[in-house]
Amino acid sequence: xxxxxxxxxxLFALVGWLISLNRRLRADLRREKLHVLEFQRELSAAIAxxxxxxxxxxxxxxxxxxxxxxxxxxxxxxxxxxxxxQLFGSLDKKTTTFIEWTREHQLLExxxxxxxxxxxxxxxxxxxxxFLEAHARSIKERGMVTAVALAIHDVTELQRLGRxxxxxxxxxxxxxxxxxxxxxxxxxxxxxxxxxxxxxxxxEIIDKISTQVEALGQLAQELLDLSLIESGKMxxxxxxxxxxxxxxxxxxxxxxxxxxxNITLTLQVDPEINVLADQTMVGRVLSNLLHNAIxxxxxxxxxxxxxKCHTVDLTHNAADLNETWVKVGVSDTGVGIPPxxxxxxxxxxxxxxxxxxxxxxxxxxxxxxxIVEAHGGRIWAEINKxxxxxxxxxxxxxx
Length: 399
Prior knowledge:
Helix Hairpins
């Protein structure tokens, strides 16, 4: 075979090999393109999913009523919602560390415990005028803790309610213990043979026992009434009534009590004023205010007044702002109320120092407040310029 043919065969084989190689390369290229396209699809899906996760997280952070914070393992804050910023202030994520932002070392210790993969109970702490509860959870990547998610809840109101419940139990225990101790002592005295033989003393003791039993009955009734009013299970029977008639009924009932102390009861209520109210419930409010005014006034005068008003301050209901209201006042010339105690006098069982030695459950004003607010009105007290105090409450006028 000549050299020419050999060269031709080599060239032919080389061309064939190049063609085959080209085909394989093109096939490999197509496969790589498919792989790239698949990777791009997966990457796009991952980016979309990540974006969706971020969007959902942002929505979750924005919608939450809790302060939500994510702290990285280098103590940088990578995310904080609006509630958290309202709690701790504005945040510069690039330069501000968690402790610089919150200034709460207890929270930092909680974060460090979670970063160290330790179990953490809820943390309770005070921040300014709030009482807060913090929960912390770890955020892991490939089994390693990389960040901490904090959820902080304002439990100030829950703490107040818990304290109110404890105070309620303590107060009710005291209010029950006092008459029960008196009854026990009186019964022991009554069992004495000499007392049993003396009819006059025996009747006096029985009368005192009856008084203490009445006090217990009054306490039980007021507790029941307060519970029913607060739960809305004592509906108002609203109708149009003359305010003066309601006041006069209570004045007649309490006149003997005022006369025994030489206290003048003055009525300054226009007979033309009609109110849309529950007559029995409003009578109860007036009875309580008049009874207190007489009890804490040694001499002088108690004035009951009323005037029609158009004012935002007389109602809690924004829908009632255009209505006409009547402001009822019960003013006395007694010992008055210390200014720092005005805000608390409508609390259950709260008693002023002046009232500690007086009989009473400490529930009357709390019941009065609930009754007035059930009518849509307000009740408050103001210190008189000369002496004594004036209690005001508002009711809707029935024209």
